[in-house]
Write a structure and sequence with these properties.
alpha+beta; four-stranded antiparallel sheet; 12 helices; 56% helix; globular
Length: 411
């Protein structure tokens, strides 16, 4: 090839690289995808994460201390009721606004991001969309002002198999009486109310389920043991693995959310939403891992040059970036077009990619990646959990296949 042709090719390649770099920057800020309001929420959450979460995340994790101050400030910013109607103290925004907020907060501190995510997606959204005006006054208004809501679906023998729920609900005059045991409650110790799923007729299986709103200080409600988890320790040691026992808990008949038999549908709809939140949570953790790896690689030298000049490291960083953007785009699609297939795809890809990105991060840092003095190992632990909560990856893959074949058969 002639010298002129080589220079022309090199010039074209440089121009292409510059364009690609500009495109990546644009995609990272998502100015072409998010509207003005969504960008404002993203900037609000991003600034809060950079100033208040990231500097404290490691200490909160090591101490296993619930981030009370951070959650209170999130409440003051209106981020504990992002999609709640304004008349009940919320911001009245859409799921995409909530997803970008969860992502940015999780980038700063996975534990705080998880608390905010579950409160919004599993409790506040639920009461806002399904609750009666009376229920909203009791179980929603204060939950945009600092009270935390919980979600009690899983049981010792009923995780993914929701139809196997054993907690019973018996109608006694104007009251429902609840008996049973729930597992893996999020924010249960600090929570003020909980959405409880129970069966009023076990023989009906999923058709016999109903959802009830229960104050956490109700007589007969007991919060049980806590088991520390490998990740999100600022909330896991305090709340996440908490059991709850209900013994003759009496609540007014009006505290049932929806109608008898609506419980399974309500649970599935909420899990569809929650998976969007978990996916956004995973993307935030993955982004934090990439930032950690990138900053380290730029500063660290090996064989006389920056790690970013080594092909193996550059390849890892490239893979990390691709995995994050693909997960982010699937998450944003799920948030704007909510369906079981879309939310399962987003969670499946985002959680798997987050775990892979975090693994790359540890590898790039080498021995330092295993040290608690660096963020890499925390990101690794936090990322792993995203493949479990909200429905394990195996279940997500099964759901995706089911709806893929269903759509194909409809053609």
């Amino acid at each position: 090839m002639a010298t002129g042709a080589l220079l022309k090719t090199a010039k074209y390649s440089l121009s292409t690289l510059q364009c690609a770099k500009a495109t990546v920057t644009k995609i990272r800020t998502f100015t072409t995808i998010l509207n003005e309001q969504q960008q404002e929420i993203r900037e609000l959450a991003k600034n809060f994460a950079d100033e208040n979460l990231k500097p404290n995340a490691s200490k909160l994790d090591l101490e296993g201390r619930f981030p009370f101050d951070q959650v209170k400030r999130l409440t003051d910013l209106g981020l504990m009721g992002v999609t709640v109607d304004e008349e009940y103290g919320g911001r009245g925004l859409d799921y995409l606004s909530l997803a970008v907020a969860v992502e940015e907060l999780s980038r700063g501190c996975a534990s705080t991001g998880m608390i905010m995510c579950l409160h919004n997606f599993l409790y506040a959204n639920l009461v806002n969309e399904k609750g009666t005006p009376e229920q909203k006054e009791i179980f929603l208004r204060e939950f945009t002002k600092g009270a935390i809501g919980c979600f009690a679906l899983s049981e010792p023998d009923a995780g993914s198999d929701v139809a196997n729920i054993k907690t019973t609900a018996t109608l006694d005059g104007d009251h429902w009486v609840l008996n049973g045991k729930k597992s893996w409650l999020s924010s249960a110790i600090e929570g003020s109310a909980v959405a409880v799923f129970a069966t009023f007729d076990p023989e009906l299986r999923h058709k016999g389920l109903a959802c009830f709103l229960v104050p956490m200080d109700a007589e007969g409600l007991f919060r049980g043991k806590k088991e520390p988890l490998m990740g999100v320790r600022a909330c896991a040691r305090a709340v996440t693995a908490c059991d709850m026992t209900l013994e003759e808990v009496r609540i007014p008949r009006s505290y049932m959310l929806g109608q008898q038999g609506d419980g399974f549908k309500i649970a599935m709809e909420q899990l569809d939403q929650a998976r969007i939140g978990v996916a956004a949570h995973a993307v935030g953790i993955a982004q934090a891992a990439l930032d950690t790896a990138m900053n380290y690689a730029k500063q660290r030298e090996a064989f006389g040059k920056s790690l970013t000049r080594l092909a193996s490291v550059k390849d890892r960083l490239t893979d990390m970036s691709i995995m994050i953007d693909s997960a982010r785009l699937l998450t944003y699609r799920a948030a704007t077009d909510v369906s079981t297939k879309n939310s399962s795809m987003a969670k499946y890809v985002a959680s798997r990619n987050a775990a892979a990105v975090a693994d790359h991060c540890v590898q790039i840092l080498g021995g330092r990646g295993l040290s608690t003095n660096y963020d890499a190992e925390r990101h690794y632990r936090d990322a792993r959990g995203t493949q479990i909560y909200g429905g394990v990856t195996d279940i997500q893959k099964r759901l995706i296949g089911h709806f893929l074949l269903k759509e194909h058969d409809a053609l």
